[in-house]
Amino acid sequence: MAKPTYTDLEKQIKELQQTAAARQASEAALKASLQKLRLHVKQSPLAVIEWDLNFRVAQWNPAARRIFGYTAEQAMGRHAAFIIPDMEKEQVDQVWETLIHNQGCARSTNRNVTRQGRAITCEWYNTPLVGPDNRVMGITSLVMDVTAREQSEKALRESENKYRLLVENQTDLVIKLDEHGRFVFASPSFCRMFDKTQTELLGTAITPFIHPQDQPGTEKKLAELFSPPNTAAAELRAKTKQGWAWLSWVGTAVLDAQGRVTDVVCVGRDITDQKQMETALKKSEQRFREIIEDVAEIAIQGYSESLDVTFWNKASEKLYGFSREEALGKNIEELIIPEQMLDSVHTAHKNWLENGEKIPPGELLLKGKGGRDVPVFSSHALVNTPRGREMFCVDVDLAPLRETEKALRESQELFSV
Question: Which of 19, 132, 173, 179 is 20 to 30 A from residue 270's alpha carbon, by CA?
Fold first, then answer.
């Protein structure tokens, strides 16, 4: 074999140098990728938890500590059972089996428990970590605490149910007045409410029972009964045996053969509780809106039945780029719905309003200001408010998740090399 020449040696050295430089560049890229991944995990507003194949904690970010109360040192290596109440273990085990067998990602909502023993509700977004050999190496979970949202929705439902029950069980009041507003008849329910007998009421005027501030309006409504269509409605305060009460009245004139008014029949209901409930509902809605307004990282929008924007929190401004002033009153189609989604949005919205078919939560690719793509996980709720039915959309920005997934894939590809 011939001895290598100086040129051959120089060529081999150059090739070795190029190989070393390429390796150094790969190592630098890998280091940068890992640093970027660690930064994403550390700064994520969602809890990021990585599990090994034994369902034990392998990674625990600051947001996980904030939600569950355990430091990373306290959580590392522990089985997931320490944050799962007994009632949820069967469901969680089923999700886990799906994940470790790489049968797709799994989203779930379940109860959890904090270090202080407080029960919370969390939404979990779970993804298997798959190696080059297509085997699952672990599971990554993104977790969002939705306890406050759930409690707000529950409180609103309970408040509305109480209001409905109250209205359905009202006892009607019936009175008949002559053309001068004097009692001709009063039902037993009216007598009980005002602690009067029929004899005491007959021939007396109704005006003294009415709050002084409501008397001018009541007299105007009574006058309306003497001209077509001979009906009128009013809400007023009246002095009952329990004190001042709000009453809702509907009056109809009784006409003789010549079309002249002879008497007036009024049917009333005590709406005091309803009035108080409306005030409470407004306060409850205001508190609810204040709560969701201050949610920093979750975009929440409210829409009317015609899909006009009624609510737009600060996170929506950040996510979609439209200020509240720009969004309020605008139709959703003008703001964040891509053209190719318009038909499906119309159909889904119509089916929910008319048929009660809820819009399922899921990932959507919407648009922001300037037409940029905005990937979100969107959930929807239809709420009855004092202004009518409103749809609330809760959008979680998936862009950080996509960046994290991309970084993970890049890291895995580099490790596989």
Answer: 179
